[in-house]
């Protein structure tokens, strides 16, 4: 798809300085521009690039005053950064507007589909599944029986959702995510073997949640594992059975939350962090990457270490850990002095 | 499916107190009960809920004596917890009793299938594959050539098994598991590049193993990577080439076992733990989450830390790590005293 | 496939000592040999096995002089280890020579396919995709629009590649890998919720890269996430948006690299290591497993710990960490002595 500078200026409530017919078909950083690309300049730190860029069009702030000649075409707007985000979203919505049922899709006769739904080839829509309006199911997904998926939600290819789970509206589930697999529950026998504890609950994903590729979210033993609205999960996150993740909580990649842990809202959990089972994390808690949390945590706490303690305390202790050999040397010297003194 | 209280009492060798015709169609915790659900009361701690629950039926112990009026229907059994587990298993076996070959399944002419096998749409059964009786292959699985899968084993959707691997009886393999991918073996060249070392072994999963969603198990360079009977692996576990996991060993999510490590039987390995390659872990070893093991470990050891040491020792040392600033302050003060004394 | 000893000797420029008609159909370690298998003896440590092995044929060095009677057939070559690798590669290339389009594959009319391409059932080749010569796409893969894949590259089953990504020649992508999922980028709103920052870049995988099963590589926000030629990634690796991994760098399983980090060439990154975002790692850097790197690192550095420091320093400090209780006891004793002295 090609667009003219004039059309884009119109979309962004901007004014073209230069060729209104200049054509663009991709987006790029200003320092990586090429013919046909559109870029933006918001941060004055990058001003030099606007004089040398190969981008065909650059979006700039109203307040920008060139100090050298400009060889590209400008679109002048109130706020270049915001305008570029508008453009990005427009670009993405045009790109991801697939609709219809592709060949080799398998849709149960008892499933109900909203308007403008897309189901890609090799995707399996089980019995009694309900897909809202504008739901997009990319190829190679399996949606188990009785699953409900809300309006505008996108499932990228290879995602697997077990029976009875619920996904809200406006969610994005990336490739190869698993939702609703059995929780890890076993009862030990006297001979050292284990009996499986049946896992008959489900997973509920509320509205406006994004889940990164390769993440796994187990169903509850009974009741529901819940990801509350607005939560954002990065790639390869593990959420165990009966966990609750609070509203707007953000979890970086490869973190793991063990069974029945409850995480509050607006928390930030760093990559590769691990939370033990059956603990309660307050709201607005910040957990440094690779930390291990094994007890209840108050609202607003900042944590680091394994097991985690207050982040500032951890950093202080770690400074001394790094100096441990010299600290022990000081102790050695003191002992020598004392022993000399005594003798 | 709806069941009457009388039928369930019959299944559980229990007696109904209340309406023998009360109908139930789902299971729930006693505190989350709703019309049509059946719950249980085993732990006296939860007794209060039996007087207020909305569950239509509650299973109780013979020994339970109500201290208030009961508004629901009871089924009285010898052991309510065990009875509920029987009910759960019954519920699950009724639910997962799919059989037959769905449309758009691709089964090689040279594959052999036992009785009551289920193969879902978009699943690929390669040449010479052998599926035992009652095997269930959910949609979007790929089973490579010469693979053997034992009776009653379930593969959930999206699971990929490479050629020549063997899966035993009564196993559950959850979604998006990979079994038999190449081990990570490369020989360095003088120019800094690497040549691939071909990985021609396989993976053997013995009977009664459960593997969590998103886990990956690499084939051996030569010979076999082996998961022994009764082992339970949680989600996103990584098992490298030529590893052996002993009988009934339990591994929590996101743990990784490097190449050629041998793990004994009845071990418990915590989440996000990492085991180095070519080490030998004894039987009944317990490894705390996030620990890193880089040497051979004796039977029954309990480990913590990275690198891991005896778990009790780690916890003791960590108490002092937390107090490190105050310990250094004490050292400072001692030095000051000594220096004053000397001057 | 059965081969005669004479044919194999011919392939390896070797000489048969024994029955030139001895038949083999599999490869095994010398200590695990069985009838029909071929093994090798290179390391003198294993010499004893050549006298007792059940392998039908054993490849040995020219320099090998038996000290006992040999009951198997030998193939004598210049370098037994190298010869066996040649044999392994030959075995693998014969095994993985699938070609053609299987039934239930879906290939866009606008896609272009080179010679000898294989596309398995249930694989989806999107619009404008370009597959080079000899590309092998196993079943249940999804290749998004505009993706380019170079000659001889193999995608194992279940791999998902998002639109606009580029994969080079001679790559191996194992099962359930995700390439090109959205980077994890969100802009906070004043009410605590987040807006998605569109991710419109792509992923570029250069030539001769191997990526282990279950790994996830996010597309750039703008521009490209890049894996340079010869890099080797193990299973369950996480590569965030705008990361660059240098030539011939090797990353062990479950490591994670956060957004915009740049890793140099010929580095070795241990399992479960984590690299923070926006840092620059030099060339030839070695990072111990489970380490956490949060700052720029010079060429050739060796690192350990979380946060990581020089590996030797970490090990020294950790020795004292283990002795922490006895060190504090020494401090206690010194204090007692001083206080006695003073009183």
UniProtKB/TrEMBL annotation, chains A, B, C:
<comment type="similarity">
    <text>Belongs to the transferase hexapeptide repeat family. LpxD subfamily.</text>
</comment>
<dbReference type="Pfam" id="PF00132">
    <property type="entry name" value="Hexapep"/>
</dbReference>
<dbReference type="Pfam" id="PF14602">
    <property type="entry name" value="Hexapep_2"/>
</dbReference>
<dbReference type="InterPro" id="IPR020573">
    <property type="entry name" value="UDP_GlcNAc_AcTrfase_non-rep"/>
</dbReference>
<comment type="pathway">
    <text>Bacterial outer membrane biogenesis; LPS lipid A biosynthesis.</text>
</comment>
<dbReference type="InterPro" id="IPR007691">
    <property type="entry name" value="LpxD"/>
</dbReference>
<dbReference type="GO" id="GO:0103118">
    <property type="term" value="F:UDP-3-O-[(3R)-3-hydroxyacyl]-glucosamine N-acyltransferase activity"/>
</dbReference>
<keyword id="KW-0677">Repeat</keyword>
<protein>
    <recommendedName>
        <fullName>UDP-3-O-acylglucosamine N-acyltransferase</fullName>
        <ecNumber>2.3.1.191</ecNumber>
    </recommendedName>
</protein>
<feature type="active site" description="Proton acceptor">
    <location>
        <position position="241"/>
    </location>
</feature>
<keyword id="KW-0441">Lipid A biosynthesis</keyword>
<dbReference type="Pfam" id="PF04613">
    <property type="entry name" value="LpxD"/>
</dbReference>
<keyword id="KW-0443">Lipid metabolism</keyword>
<feature type="domain" description="UDP-3-O-[3-hydroxymyristoyl] glucosamine N-acyltransferase non-repeat region">
    <location>
        <begin position="23"/>
        <end position="89"/>
    </location>
</feature>
<keyword id="KW-0444">Lipid biosynthesis</keyword>
<dbReference type="GO" id="GO:0009245">
    <property type="term" value="P:lipid A biosynthetic process"/>
</dbReference>
<keyword id="KW-0012">Acyltransferase</keyword>
<comment type="function">
    <text>Catalyzes the N-acylation of UDP-3-O-acylglucosamine using 3-hydroxyacyl-ACP as the acyl donor. Is involved in the biosynthesis of lipid A, a phosphorylated glycolipid that anchors the lipopolysaccharide to the outer membrane of the cell.</text>
</comment>
<comment type="subunit">
    <text>Homotrimer.</text>
</comment>
<dbReference type="GO" id="GO:0016410">
    <property type="term" value="F:N-acyltransferase activity"/>
</dbReference>
<keyword id="KW-0808">Transferase</keyword>
<dbReference type="InterPro" id="IPR001451">
    <property type="entry name" value="Hexapep"/>
</dbReference>
<dbReference type="InterPro" id="IPR011004">
    <property type="entry name" value="Trimer_LpxA-like_sf"/>
</dbReference>
<dbReference type="GO" id="GO:0016020">
    <property type="term" value="C:membrane"/>
</dbReference>
